[in-house]
Amino acid sequence: MGTEGQTQTDEEGPMTEVQTRPTTRRMGRTATVLDSARVLLNPLAATVAIGVIQRRPWAVRLAARIDADRRGVRQLQRLRARYGDGLLRLRVPFRRITLVLSPDDVRMVLEGAPVPFTPANQEKEAALDRFEPGGVLISPPSERPPKRAFNEAVLDTGRPVHRHADALLAAIDQEGRSMAVTGHLDWDRFASAWWRMVRRIVLGNAAREDFETTDLLARLRRDGNWGPFHPARPAASAEFQRRIRDYVDRAEPGSLAALAAGASGGGTAGTAGTAGTAGVAGVAGVAGVAPEQQLPQWLFAFDAAGIATYRVLALLATHPDQARRAEEEIGSHDLSAPQDLPYLRACVHEAVRLWPTTPAILRDYVAPPIGADDRPVAGRVDHGLSNGELVLVYAPFFHRDDQRLSYADRFSPEIWLDGRARESWSLVPFSAGPAECPGRNLVLYATSSLLATLLSEHRFELTSCLGLDPRRRLPGTISHVDMRFAITPR
């Protein structure tokens, strides 16, 4: 998902193309074998090693040690200088892969969902099929509209503050306070409290201590890191789906599971079912969508949100000017009620820009049908790509391109408030276009509210040395698992 100005939330027909896309072929050149091999090594192999579905702590540490993302950015800058900024096809034996090297082509690809650039990429499908086989992200274009509508209805895509924010805030506030009680905070402690909060938000308060369900998800995600090369675990997948379905059937009021039950026409009788249905009043077109196929993606996405939140704590602990502005915003709002906190939201946006939690945005190209005259049918564009070709947007290249962005290596939340980020298709921390993350606003509400809870009563001092000095450029890669804080009351 990108900025507000780039959002397109209403699904068009399954085979409809966005009219603002270019009407000419944009295929550029083909890289040499050597240049292709360099890209395969970094950024592609480095990104895969870290874990595209579930991060591997040892690989996160190693990537930070060698600053892997900065190396990847430099690699693509060299390719752009050599080949220009058109689409660049790699010479690889096992898959047709094309790199995106310009913001205009980022826009073309992301606005071109679900056809001709489908989010249901084959690598993504092999990974996510283990725990959300019917999820919107890996559904064919013809099945996307009702599933997208379902996700937008439950997640309140267009609202900065979710309609059930009161219920969500209780979980955020209580679990946030538990993070600070010992006077120190490391990643394990933060993650444990974070997942208690997430389970309460998504599944209900009864799931607070149900670590077995999220551990099972983590196991399936680890398998997903290997894509088609790891054998399936049908029993584990079925057990995970059963657990999610049980929470949807329970439909605890105030949870996303209850809203999902209502949105799908389900829910249990009585109060829970009523609460779920009321939460999505007027969304009759999403009946028949299986909630247990959509909820896993929300749990999955909250993992990345936790990493981003933890990184914001580190950034604010080391950047006094930005910390002061965050404190002023917190002090001017009543935190006992749900609040829209633009500056803290901008800080989260900025943390995801600096260190993308989805570094590789993948699309597979769907070739246009050919008419009797051997040309694409009316209204379709031939982009010069092969059917099924992987089109890759490497987010760090665009987010940290110091040849084109003056703020590339600085913590600059203001760009999300003054219009600069909104005007740039280089910045897509939550993707963009019709397949933009439907939970962006919910994530920003939850993360900014948690940050406000933590910072309103405590000061955080970063005690681990990670090179987060406002006088120097920020590292291209950072290890969140090694961040540690000392906490003192205000």
The total beta strand count reads: 9
Distance between the termini: 35 Å
What is the domain total for the residues? 1
CATH-assigned fold name: Cytochrome p450
Q: Give the number of helices.
A: 17
In terms of DSSP E residues, the strand content is: 5-15%
Dominant shape? globular
What would CATH call the class?
Answer: Mainly Alpha
Pfam families: p450
GO molecular function: heme binding; iron ion binding; monooxygenase activity; oxidoreductase activity, acting on paired donors, with incorporation or reduction of molecular oxygen
Family: Belongs to the cytochrome P450 family.
Protein name: Cytochrome P450
Question: Can you offer a commentary on this structure?
Answer:
It comes from Cryptosporangium aurantiacum. Belongs to the cytochrome P450 family. This is Cytochrome P450. GO terms for molecular function: heme binding; iron ion binding; monooxygenase activity; oxidoreductase activity, acting on paired donors, with incorporation or reduction of molecular oxygen. The strands form 2 sheets. A 6-stranded mixed β-sheet has the order 1-2-3-7-6-4, sandwiched between helices. A 3-stranded antiparallel β-sheet has the order 5-9-8. The chain is globular, with a radius of gyration of 22 Å. It has one domain (about 5-490): Orthogonal Bundle (Cytochrome p450). Helix content is about 45%, strand content about 10%. It has 17 helices and 9 strands. With about 500 residues, the protein is of the alpha+beta class. Helix 7 runs antiparallel to helix 8.
